[in-house]
Amino acid sequence: MAGLTAVEVGAAWRAASGFAHGRYWPNLRASQPRAAIPGADGVHTVALVIDEDQHRPLAEYCRIMLRRLQERYHARAQAR
To answer: How far apart are CA 55 and CA 30, in angstroms?
Structure first.
């Protein structure tokens, strides 16, 4: 579906689920570091920016899968 292998669909689903449920790891995976600000005791604050090039394909996969789901639903509803 959406031109993806089963493994890619699973990975995309996990990432989308992580974003939807407010998990931090998909944001870390899809971000690019922009700055590191040194703080006390050797602790640094890292500024991250979401990488649109990684978010865009996930959004496109979701759009395609939802469109195909709607098409299937409509076809089954018309068959009744």
So the answer is: 7
Calculate ∠ Cα 70-11-54, nearest 5°: 90
Q: Which SS3 state, helix, strand or coil, does residue 30 take?
A: coil
**Distances 22 to 16, 18, 29, 32, 35 between C-alpha atoms, Å:** 10, 6, 14, 18, 23
Whole-Å CA distances, 56 to 16, 38, 39, 42, 59: 12, 32, 34, 35, 5
- Compute the distance between CA of residue 78 and CA of residue 62 in angstroms, rounded to an integer: 24
pLDDT digits (tens, 9 = 90+) for 49-75: 877 777 787 788 878 888 888 999 999
